[in-house]
Amino acid sequence: MIPRPLAQRRTAAIVVTLAALTAGGLGACAASSDTATTTEQSAASAGSLHMIANEGHRLAFHVIPGHRPAIVLDAGGGLDSSQWHAIAPALAQRTGSEVITYDRAGEGASDEVPGPWKAANAASDLRAGLTALGARGAVLVSHSLAGEVATELVRSDPDRVAGAVLVDASLPEFYTDAETARIVAANAHQIAELRGKPQTRQTRQLLAQAADYGPAHRAYHRMSWPDIVPATVIVSSQTPFDTPQDARLWKAAQAQFAGAASNRTLIHADPSSHDIPEDRPDVVMKAVEDMVARVRADR
């Protein structure tokens, strides 16, 4: 499979497969200085900073005060809370809700953690932050790789999340054994090249996310989302892939997930790339507003 040219993608590392995580991730490293320069400005516009400890490392959470349910925005792979710099304050104004953004370990202002990236560890970090902030029954908004974090969180602590908006998210249905094996084999050379490059914070994060990819995603494929947690699924028109086979499977996985329970809704963000929060913030915000209204009505 051939990932899109870097010039066509603003935030290449957001894609959740090895194909784009490696070739795309190199572009993200090149653009990391731009991301870094916007992080402080974005965080400042997003409210107060809370450094919260979990398992020996600290994570940066940014909070715009407001009413409950809290809206929790989780960025795509290789990105930090600055992905939401425009959406977070707009949602706070339009819903009156508390809005929380955060940096996963190794991203933004959060501490780097050595070893392979695991969704369960990321979910533990998010849970620790929400516990410290007193946010329970939140509306979780998860883009791309963050879909794996969301799945781990709602499976282990379903009362933590009252509803979710999954934005072109990495969902278990996509990772059939055949597809996972194909991705790993097709990108082994790119992973080796990335290991040979100078190691920076960004390259270490990319390699951490690529480590144990096959076994982790074969196990992920067997997971399921609890039926008690409603979800809105937003799928992009382009998907993370240029190859038709992968794009079809990605869209089919989104539709399969959405159709598995009566409290799930599928929305097509047309036109859009995988980076829906950048291309179609209107679609994301409308879906979040609707989910917040649904959660409030149920209380």
UniProtKB/TrEMBL annotation:
- Keywords, alphabetical: Hydrolase, Signal
Please identify the protein, giving its name as recorded.
Answer: Alpha/beta hydrolase
Q: Which residues form the AB hydrolase-1 domain?
A: 71-285
Which superkingdom does the taxonomy of this entry point to? Bacteria
Tell me where the signal peptide lies. 1-30
How is this protein annotated for GO cellular component?
Answer: membrane
The record's Pfam families line, in alphabetical order, gives: Abhydrolase_6
Q: Name one GO molecular function term.
A: hydrolase activity
